[in-house]
Records
---
Amino acid sequence: MSEFYRNVQENYSKLNELERRILEYIKENLSNKKHLTLNDVSNKFFISPNTVVRLAKKLGYSGFVQLREDLIHSLIPSIDFQSWSIDNQLLKTKKLLKEEAFKEIIHLLDEKKEILFYAHGLSKYSCDIVADKLRILGKNATVFNERHLMLHSAIHSNHESLIFLVSMSGETKNIVECANVASVNGAIIVSITGLSQNSLEKIANINIFVDYHRQVYEGMDISSRFSVSYFFEVLISKYISIINNV
């Protein structure tokens, strides 16, 4: 069973009659491969966008965008899921990445005295590689993935710190906690999350959204971090190009 239908099954009883009608409308339109926005749904039912967002939250999502993306993923035939995921992750991530964000981050890489990475699980490995490359380029780069060390680092961060926080959901509790602490200390925060409204993107100075498909095996997260690695590879490539042209 897909994540979307599991969420619906577990939370359907919480929905009122109007919310159930809204949900059926969303499912029907996306099943027919129609593009659907938050305003499309609210205008159809003459309701405020917040009503649709509340529906999404009742189903366990951070907002309408996350609900829509999860439903779209559930409609992909399972036999083609792996190839669809890998091929389209790159295409969708390319569309999500903005040149203005790269320029701003590259400027910060030159300006800040320390570059920190906070990540858990498989996300750590993407950070390890980019941190290694930054150290080769002469930057002071460190990766943290243990909760207490991460928090200690955030407490001692300051306006000379540039921090990349990787959380595919944008809701990883201790990463959000560290983001709040570092933000108060004046650090510049770059969030790297899946495409959704989330707690981390509200705290960050710069938001990087990448395509993400959650996959779990025997309770363990085995989701691809390909899109995170792709973002970092493009960033390093652009940064090296600028260094070589100086």
Note: The radius of gyration is 19 Å.
---
Amino acid sequence: MMVALLPLVHFGFAALSLAWGRVTRELILLSLVFDAVLVGLLSAGLSQGKPLVIVLGGWEKGIGIELAADRFSLGLTILVLLLGGAVVAYLWHKRLRPYFFMLLHLLLGSVYTLVFARDLFNIYVTLELLTLVSFLLVGYERKPYQIWASLKYLLLASLGLGIYLLGVAIIYYHTGTLNLGLVAARLVDQPNAPWVLLASSLLVTGVAVKSGIFIFSLWLPAAHSSATPAVSALLSGLVIKMGVVVLFRLTSAFSLSLPLLVLG
């Protein structure tokens, strides 16, 4: 249950930040307290060494959205909690609109979702949400150079996610599923098929563009130099790192050595 609650807490608090705009700082602090409690419960749940898996909606695996936590996920949630706390402490006495805190909650909720996601399409949808939130955060102060940098980021990230989605379509066409565990099982007999190489290359390229991995980092300098210090910290500490996390998750189903070698 903690696996689903960590993202849901922030998606819920995002709505509350707009409804109760006068107490946004108290709300973000309360959400971090919830995070700390849930991360502690998650750590206790993983103490036996077995991953925690939940399929939302009561559907069977492969149909419903699967979220899973392991030791790697636990480490990431702790890092997200610490960085989120540091950013909130930095922003505590700054004058910010409730809109900013709504975006911050949406960003943290999206990051937690990516940490636990085990479904290629769920990863795509969450990356799209994270892209939109990052775009709005970079241009938060509405200065011309910030708007230009945020638009550049949105354009390139959307291009990357379009490439990723094409890879997802190929995977679904050949395997009939987007669950990473089931995809891995169905690729056992054909790990080096041409379509597998094509699909995995598209997935890697899309994630690389989204995450600013060299040589796909054209949007990075403008976004970091234009964003406020807190937003820049979120971009470098969380948003970009989520691409690396997604690549790591993809290795559970695909051999990415050749696509990474070809793409440099």
Note: The longest strand covers residues 52-55.
